[in-house]
TrEMBL record, chains A, B:
Organism in which the protein naturally occurs: Solihabitans fulvus
One record GO biological process: negative regulation of DNA-templated transcription
Full protein name: TetR/AcrR family transcriptional regulator
Pfam families to which the protein is assigned, alphabetical: TetR_C_1, TetR_N
Single annotated GO MF: transcription cis-regulatory region binding
Keyword DNA-binding: yes
Alphabetically ordered keywords of this record: DNA-binding, Transcription, Transcription regulation
PANTHER family listed in its UniProt record: HTH-TYPE TRANSCRIPTIONAL REGULATOR RUTR, TRANSCRIPTIONAL REGULATORY PROTEIN
DNA sequence: TCTACGTGTGGAACATTGTTCGTGTCAAGG
DNA sequence: CCTTGACACGAACAATGTTCCACACGTAGA
């Protein structure tokens, strides 16, 4: 009802300084955490391809140049994102009797994190092995495999293989989903359509593909993921 | 020494038509094959990241717009490239007694093709399964696995897994090589440097990583590739 | 209190890349 | 000859990562 006294006095003295100060206080400073949060939100809702410096800056109500006071470049932002995802993984206390379930569980966690942020595993594929959050995960997986009696060398290489496969699996899954959304009739990922095309191939040229079109296109949920992980872990067991 | 008679006559009649016609004959028409050849050459020498419509057009002595009369877009070009690489693969006649070596051999061939064109496996990860060249390779691999007595469903899913892993492995290898060339001291891929960093980690936080830094960074040539492929194929054998 | 310095903010500009638009040329068919 | 379709290609546009530069603010020192 009544005009703010400070405002009134400012008007009296033709002094607008009080207003900008209040405005500055209302806008939180840009931080790496806020950038990372905003970026993850964009990837979660629109996919990794929608992640641009401009989209992040827009979400923070600023311009893209402002981000460079906090991140080196876009690749640095990628690393922050993957680091954040890795930080969210729960690494179990290794149990020799359940190491197989444990390693599969960690991989499933990674997969689920990546799939929550469609396309982000592309960033993971570009990261070196020395980021501390990645080392933490690697350490946890190594502990599980060693507890399970896997030889150190095999364990080390298995981690590499598992992480590569998980990232590739998620990348493809994200692309499949993206393509489905686009309803591109030329390149198909939709299972029924692939099945149709496989079955329609000339049997003389593609005898096995036509005969086993159903198996080639089979799989619900993460059947393929589980199958491959089992292959690898079984391979470790029999090593 | 003597001026070309056609030229002389053209000058006489103030008719320049003969000159452009000759020039047109010297420049071969742009075709999909020429585009694909040029693109592969660029990727082979400068890596996938250097592949732009402009770089291809430049190599062909034209402008980027000219390419669009022959390729739909850049993604289409990607498919042409992967199709070309797949067409170069030699698929063996399946031999039940040697199916394991055969499947490993096909995967090694794919790997080598991808590594000859650094970074190109990124395009492979984005492709759907219905491209005819990819179906041909898939058919060949399926024939090998079935000849080896692998159940159709397992064979079908194994192909998916193998192709994903090979692409991811090559993508990472390309990025490692690229990073090494940049001598980026912050993110490291160089093995000795990774070993140094792993060994220098706090042992209390990363006991297994520090103790097994040597194994984590071990591997010459394609040791990791061979290890993982063996894991998968062994897993198939014991299924 | 005033001044200087360092840090953060953010618009403008730049280089690069994929793609479309529009124009000109050529060849084939009527 | 005229028309049509295909190809070639420069110009222009939109989008994206990044740098440059000016300004504002906070802190430390005189």
């Amino acid at each position: 009802m009544s005009v703010d006294p400070t405002q009134r006095r400012a008007v009296r003295h033709a002094q607008p300084a009080a207003v900008p100060a209040r405005q500055a206080r209302r806008k939180p400073p840009i931080t790496v955490d806020r950038i990372t949060d905003a970026a993850l939100e964009i990837v979660a809702t629109e996919g990794y391809d929608a992640l641009t410096m401009r989209s992040v800056a827009g979400a923070l109500g600023t311009g893209p140049a402002s981000l460079y006071a906090h991140v080196v470049n876009k690749a640095d932002l990628d690393e922050l994102l993957i680091g954040r995802l890795c930080a969210g993984l729960v690494l179990p206390e290794p149990d020799p009797a359940a190491w197989r379930e444990q390693i599969l569980g960690v991989c499933a966690q990674i997969r689920d994190q990546y799939l929550r942020y469609p396309g982000i595993s592309r960033a993971a594929l570009a990261m070196g092995p020395t980021d501390l959050e990645i080392v933490r995960v690697s350490e946890g997986m190594l502990a599980i495999l060693l507890a399970g009696g896997v030889a150190p060398q095999a364990a080390a290489w298995a981690i590499d293989a598992l992480l590569l496969y998980v990232a590739a699996y998620c990348l493809e899954a994200s692309i499949v989903r993206q393509r489905s959304a686009q309803e591109d009739a030329v390149v198909v990922h939709d299972r029924e359509e692939v099945l149709r095309r496989f079955a329609a191939l000339p049997a003389a040229t593609f005898p096995h593909t036509t005969r086993h079109a159903a198996e080639l296109t089979a799989g619900e949920g993460h059947d393929r993921f589980d199958f491959t992980l089992a292959l690898m872990v079984d391979g470790l067991v029999h090593r």
